[in-house]
Amino acid sequence: MTDITLQGLEKRYGETTAVEDVSVEIDDGELLCLLGPSGSGKSTTLRMLAGLETPTEGAIRLDGEDVTDQPAYDRNTSTVFQDWALFPHKTVLENVAFGLKMRDVSKDERRERAQAMLERVQMGGYDDEDPTTLSGGQKQRVALARSLAVNPDVLLLDEPLSNLDKRLREDMQIELREIHDDLEETFVHVTHDQDEAFTLADRIGIMNEGELIQVGDPDEVYENPKNRFIEAFLGDTNFVDATIVQSPGETVAVETELGAELVLPSSGDHGLESGDELTLSLRPEILSIDRGEPGTDATAPADQRAVTDGSTTNAVTGTVANVIYRGSTVRYSVSIDGTSVFAERTDASSGSLSAGDDVTLEWNSEDVLAFRADGTRVPLYNP
């Protein structure tokens, strides 16, 4: 196992900066996912770690050794690529054994280690197969076996599952996690798929425009996103514009584009004043949706609402605009004072709603996330 340190890593191509000041420490045996949209710099960061790109500035250390200027062949790392990069003129076994051959491992040992790794990725018995005849999932397993056969200190994975269909991709995510847990090696995995990162990662590093914005456990980055970009990128949510109308104290009162005054908890001095603009995030999982009118406390004036352990209840009324059935969930788009907000139910059979129904959306105020005009998070509620 190997720990990794990236310090002030930058990569520029002429006037274009692909990666800017990336610093992170990755522990022995950890699986870190670099997550971000296309062009965010995650694959370039991985290629620098692999030795396939030379940093413009910064340092890379593996187990404390500075490898910044070392070529790929001098680093005990191995990379699984998005397109698998299998040799079409070699058999499956020869593909897996190729890296061992380049390291002058004896023929018998190459065969033994390659067969063992094929068994590990559920490709035993495919030794003599032509890789061009394999399915996408099988090719991915062979590519993974080839990278693992050389016993690398670090396994680097550059969107290796992106060419697979949804069901196979989900199965491979679980298998890859199990392989990591079995081998206890250091993995760095690049993906643009949020579900994939949350399934695989010990920690997630979120990148955008060449910068590493936040690194943390999956639950940490989801529950406490550093800024609005992360909140938007990690999943569907409702962003609602708001203006503070009551100077923060025990609570913060805001006017919103929903045509209602909402109350947010406040447990500290966040430098907010009346007139400041915020963006609120109302995630669909915090919203309850039902026919009928809300409870009286949820719609009482801000200064009359009960506060219990930092919690108040907010509610707004609207009309169901459309209903989208999504298998295990049903999504309801609700029109509220001209603004569209969506909520979801997991049980479609329980009091199903139809377009045109008048409904109430209700939620606990401490579940709302707030962001300043510059996109930074305002941690209003700290229980």
Automatic annotation (TrEMBL):
Subcellular location: Cell membrane
Catalytic activity, EC: 7.3.2.6
Annotated Gene Ontology cellular component terms: ATP-binding cassette (ABC) transporter complex
UniProt-annotated stretches for the region Disordered: 291-310
GO molecular function: ABC-type tungstate transporter activity; ATP binding; ATP hydrolysis activity
Membrane topology, as annotated: Peripheral membrane protein
Catalyzed reaction equations: tungstate(in) + ATP + H2O = tungstate(out) + ADP + phosphate + H(+)
Keyword line: ATP-binding, Molybdenum, Nucleotide-binding, Transport
UniProt xrefs under InterPro entries: AAA+_ATPase, ABC_SmlMolc_Importer, ABC_transporter-like_ATP-bd, ABC_transporter-like_CS, Mo/tungstate-bd_C_term_dom, P-loop_NTPase, Transp-assoc_OB_typ2
Gene3D superfamilies the UniProt entry points to: 2.40.50.100, P-loop containing nucleotide triphosphate hydrolases
Domain ABC transporter: 4-234
Broad enzyme group: translocase
Quaternary structure, from the entry: The complex is composed of two ATP-binding proteins (WtpC), two transmembrane proteins (WtpB) and a solute-binding protein (WtpA).
Entry function: Part of the ABC transporter complex WtpABC involved in molybdate/tungstate import. Responsible for energy coupling to the transport system.
Official protein name in the record: Molybdate/tungstate import ATP-binding protein WtpC
Organism in which the protein naturally occurs: Natronorubrum daqingense
Organism phylogeny: Archaea, Methanobacteriati, Methanobacteriota, Stenosarchaea group, Halobacteria
